[in-house]
Design brief:
This protein has about 200 residues and is mostly helical. The protein has helices at about 5-25, 35-40, 45-50, 55-65, 80-95, 100-110, 115-125, 125-140, 145-155, 160-165, 175-195.
Length: about 200
């Protein structure tokens, strides 16, 4: 990688980092591209060169948040139940991180903006759910697999929703594991019943 390319990549990362910080602190609507430029120490034209719109910059923030896990979830070769348990643990732990919760709070406050909601859905939940949908397509005969994947994820993420709405205490790792086990057992019974 050339020095110019490294500098450009660093500048892009700095813009994303500044945008993330300002979005989480002030909200999407209250954050301007001018403020992001100032926070980054670049001109507004530089910000627009990398990100033609604030929505595209928000999508980059979400992708960066997911990439911060240093891995995109991949299903392995364990049993069907174990793979679901592993995915459920990953999904819940990711969504209970402070930055992820911050973005969901932002969406609760500003999700009525259709363009922002569409960006959020496509860069976040849709990307996180796709591996599960593909896994179910390969290993289950149940007809409505996309619906099933949504329902499994919704049940797994119920503690996150309670945390966002009530400000209740964070779950311990052992509590997360117990929750995922209960949800997975229920989901497997549902799948089996529907398949019979």
């Amino acid at each position: 990688m050339t020095l110019a390319l490294k500098n450009a990549q660093q500048k892009q990362n700095d813009i994303i980092s500044s945008a993330e910080s300002l979005f989480l602190k002030r909200g999407f609507a209250a954050t301007s591209m001018d403020q992001i430029a100032t926070e980054t120490g670049v001109t507004k034209q530089t910000v627009y060169r990398y990100f033609p719109s604030k929505n595209e910059l928000f999508a980059a923030v979400m992708q960066n948040l997911r990439a911060g896990e240093n891995r995109i979830y991949r299903f392995g070769e364990a049993s069907f139940e174990q793979e679901l348990l592993n995915y459920g643990q990953y999904l819940l732990a990711f969504h209970l991180r402070s930055k992820t919760l911050g973005l969901y709070r932002l969406m609760l406050n500003e999700g009525s903006r259709q363009a922002l909601f569409d960006t959020f859905k496509n860069a976040g939940p849709k990307q996180m759910l796709q591996p599960l949908i593909e896994f179910l397509q390969q290993h289950s005969q149940y007809a409505d697999l996309e619906f099933s994947a949504h329902m499994y994820a919704t049940m797994i993420l119920a503690p996150r929703n309670q945390l966002l709405m009530s400000g209740s205490a964070r779950m311990k790792t052992s509590e997360q594991e117990q929750h995922v086990q209960k949800v997975t057992r229920l989901f497997l019974r549902m799948i089996k019943t529907k398949c019979n």
